[in-house]
Write a structure and sequence with these properties.
It contains three helices and no strands. The protein is mainly alpha-helical. It is about 75% helix and about 0% strand. Among the domains are: about 35 residues; about 35 residues.
Length: about 110
Amino acid sequence: MGGECVLGASDSGQEASRDTWFLQGWKAGKFLIKGSVAGGAVYLVYDQELLGSSDKSQAALKKAGEVVPPAMYQFSHYVCQQTGLQIPQLPAPPKIHFPIRDSWNAGI
């Protein structure tokens, strides 16, 4: 009888230990994913020289405006093909012209 209680107690302890390891692993995984996304964003900003002159920043913004809408269309088309879902056609995004050079340090 005494041995059964000890075995039962150690089994629940091992199960709790497995749960703890799983939660710690899950938290570590989430941290690594978030850190990778943040690191990628920092690398992209550095690689595209977005913190340099306003001319380079404005060129990068224009390039992103040209590249992102077609990429979103391709991705939504791919999702529709893979899942069989019908996504309604959205209107074209508005053309935004925001000259960074004209507003740089305008509040000072």
